[in-house]
Amino acid sequence: MLSSLAEALRLGGVISFETRNPAARAWEHWTRAATYTERDIPAGHLREWLHVTEVYQGRVAFDAHNVFQDGRDAVYTSVLYFRTAEGITTDLEHAGFSDVTVVAAGAMSRPSTTLSRRSSGPTSGPSATMWSGSLVVVSLV
Fold first, then answer.
1. Contact by Cβ (8 Å): 93, 101
2. Angle (nearest 5°) at CA 92 between 82 and 139
3. Where would you tag: which of 40, 97, 109, 129 has the fewest CB atoms within 10 A of its CB?
4. How far is Cα 126 from Cα 138, in angstroms, rounded to an integer?
């Protein structure tokens, strides 16, 4: 897929994306105690928290619990891969990108809304503890 992106990008073109920073070890803070929140949503009162179920070689699996007013616990399992900047840079250069820049975590600001914790990076609640990433900018020169 990276090679296809490099082929489709015109000279001077830029692609940017974010990635998690493994050195931050953010998953260590994804506990019920650290991520538990309660809030009112259009469907009623919601209790939510995260629970890490597996950490292995940069792969982190976790469950997001969403307990609704009727007691139903909707559990969504997610898997994130935490890759090093060196590994990402190597793969991008191998795919044909010639100018790779990694901006360290904390260098960007991410707004959020109270309605959706997935909007763009909340400042409180379960997802707030998940953000510890870097911005990767690649281009063809």
1. no
2. 120
3. 109
4. 30
For residue 60 the two structure tokens come to 């982190």
C-alpha 64/C-alpha 81 separation (Å) is 16
The DSSP secondary-structure symbol of 97 reads -
Whether the CB-CB separation of 112 and 122 falls below 8 Å is answered with yes
Neighbour count for residue 34 (Cβ, 10 Å):
13
Q: pTM score, two decimals?
A: 0.67
pLDDT, mean of each 10-residue run, the chain (141 residues) = 84 81 90 97 96 96 97 96 87 84 56 35 45 56 47
Question: How far is Cα 19 from Cα 133, in angstroms, rounded to an integer?
Answer: 5
- Rounded to the nearest angstrom, the gap between the alpha carbon of residue 78 and the centroid of all alpha carbons in its chain is 11
pLDDT score for 93: 87
Amino acid at 9: L
Q: In what order do the strands lie in the sheet with 73-81?
A: 37-41, 44-56, 59-68, 73-81
Using CA atoms of 10, 16, 22, 25 in order, give the dihedral in degrees to the nearest 10: -170
**Distance set, CA 87 to CA 22, 75, 83, 99 (Å):** 11, 32, 6, 15
